[in-house]
Amino acid sequence: MILRLILKILKHKLLDICKPSWILAILVAINGYWFIKPVVQHTLEMLPSVLNWSLDWLDLINDIGLAELPRLLLGAGLIIMSIGLALQARLAWAFSLILLLVVAAISFLSSAPGLLLLSYTLVVTLLLLMYWKSFDSSSIAAGSLFALTSTGALMLYAVFGSLYLGDQFSAPIVDMPTAFYFSIVSMSTVGYGDLYPVTSTARLFTASIIVMGITVFATSISAIIGPVIGGNLKKIVKGRISNVMRKNHFIIVGVSPTAHSVYAGLVERGDAVTVVAPVGAEHEYPADADIVFGDPSSADVLVEAGASKAKYILALRNEDAENAFIVLAAKEVGDSDTKTIALVNSSKHIPQIRRVKPDVVFSLQLLGSELLVRTLKGETIDNKLITKLFFGAESTE
Fold it and tell me: Which part of the chain is the RCK N-terminal domain (predicted)?
């Protein structure tokens, strides 16, 4: 049974690595690198001159090609967004789709060598659309990635644009520090007035920096603050309020047919029941059921389900090894009056389950076969027999 448990854990770890979100994150990162590769190679060739702060930046921009700046931003954005995809962030999924569509459009309008990249981009886009359900989380990390990407892209646009239009300002912008200073002042809408555009083109460019700066900052703040507020509200509604209500209740761990039947029986008799189910597990519990999703053998998850105030904790999963670990976790966080019940799916595992010392061990195989044999033999079936089969002792009634 121990070997089986180890193999199951390894299987879960492998499935975590091979989740669609991870695979798509890798594919998107490859897409971004493929798109950005020509610019990176050309820039690396010019690295010695780039490190020289006294160079003529206008010549450098003309040498690299101003038209290559969007390619640089899009490729870097896809690589950064792949991290958010690995975190299953919906924001990263939406932003990646937008970037991929732009990459596909540029590849379509380019020469023949871009057709292969176009095909790959379209395939990745279709895969993202197919597995959209895998990206349903909202996190601070994803919001931070969005803020980093959008702010970095705007900064590059502002800096290189300022350098390219340098002679169209009141004091010509000819070096990187001045361009960086002007970009920050414009993006933050401070406007000291020491540098200002003097031509229509430069004015339109400066206006675009201001508008995009306000938009990027506002969106970035909402992307970061939103998950914080939403997470706290979710904790208040589903965590704290539910924890107050969870008292003298039954905790059913599992989504097996036995678990569903026991749940229905207890609810029918008016008992309060909390269900602990694995994340993503399919179940038939009603929509208004009190369900806590998480690792059923985790002490933290049982604490969230109110284990310290529960009457019984029932380990009703289909795997005996998992039921044994649930009992161990329940004994760690449960109150002294909390009873544990373990289902044994295979009667040969009863000795192993008894070693973790649950209060009740029952096997449907053993119970069913004993009742059937006694019925066939015409022997008495009463409360004393049922109590003995469940508890291993005579009834006190």
Answer: 247-362
